[in-house]
Design brief:
The protein has 103 residues and is mainly beta. The chain is 0% helix and 70% strand. It is built from no helices and ten strands. It is globular.
Amino acid sequence: MNADGHTESLSINAASQIDNKNGNIMLLFNGTASADRADTDIEWVFDREKDFSGRISLSTLLGKAETGSFIADISVNPSNFVVNDTIWSIEQSDIHIADKKFM
């Protein structure tokens, strides 16, 4: 983790291995935040004969509505994950959260 008071930014990098009888699982987390924006990447790799891996990438803008309630605009960035050697694609999409409601 690195917090920079001069640039008012934060970065976090973490990795973990989960022991599993069918093959270990490696998890990676990378995140950065500055001002009202946070970028997050989560990756995983299963140690198996066939490919089981993937990545999810999010970009989030945080703020307040005129009413003072919390709002978040989350962009799901294009990425892929693999299940049993089959590639699945995640297309770009958006999630808007306002007044405790998902839109």
